[in-house]
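Reagents: none. Just compute today. Cytochrome C biogenesis protein.
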Amino acid sequence: MLAAYIHILALLPLTAQILRQEPRRDIWLYGSIFLAAIGTMVLLGVTGEEVQSRGFAAALHWSELTVIVIFGGLVICKGPQQVWRLAGYIGGYLLLFAVLAAVFSVLLYRHDPATVHGPALYSGWLWAHIGSSLVTYALVTLAAIAAMAYVVQEHALKHRKPTRWSRRLPPLRDSEYMLVGFLKWSAWVLVIGIVSGFALRYVEGSPIWSIDHKMLLTLLGFATICTLIFIHEKSTLRGRMAVRFVLGAWLLLTLAFPGVRFVTGYIVG
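Predicted 3D structure written out:
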């Protein structure tokens, strides 16, 4: 429980970036990202949650770490325009995941979750599948947060009433650029995840072409992402419709990744 408290506290400085009068890419932002990453890694080290674990809390914690690493890399490498202005909202999202993981793993249910074993554990397909799944979900998460920033900015511009929250977010055009860009990258990575998922079934000796809930939701998410990219390229899709596609893809992949872990761990299990 102490590790969970430390983890939550480590995410507070990143979340507090939302309260800054003028968000900046400075030492305080870098420090908050570094502290969030260290706090999450310490928690994983203390709890022993392995990346191949099928537990709900492990899925949330490893997803948090992947989001932090990708976002931190984009900030340091000066990625998409003003992506660092999303820091506070990303911190709030990660804080929500941390609280959910703490509640379900410590207060409501106590057991050792299942983990991958047997020949699959030593297969490169397993690590390709896990890595691509985490990266895909992190990219779609960043796209969803950029989509929410787009909605806030669009509302402020439409009513000609900028708020202190909208002034701290990336401009409307940058938010749109990020939400589509993150989705394009996630589509390429998700292809690796789908292929490695089928290969992993072969290694485990399971029916390759059987479609379970996780695979179905993943394929639907992939179809949603590809549809948005196709329409955007062909007809310059803009505005709320693009946001709906992004949030739909995020919801499907949330159900496919941590959602399935939740059902198997706390409902069926």
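The chain has two domains: 1-117, 118-268.
Action item: order primers for follow-up constructs.
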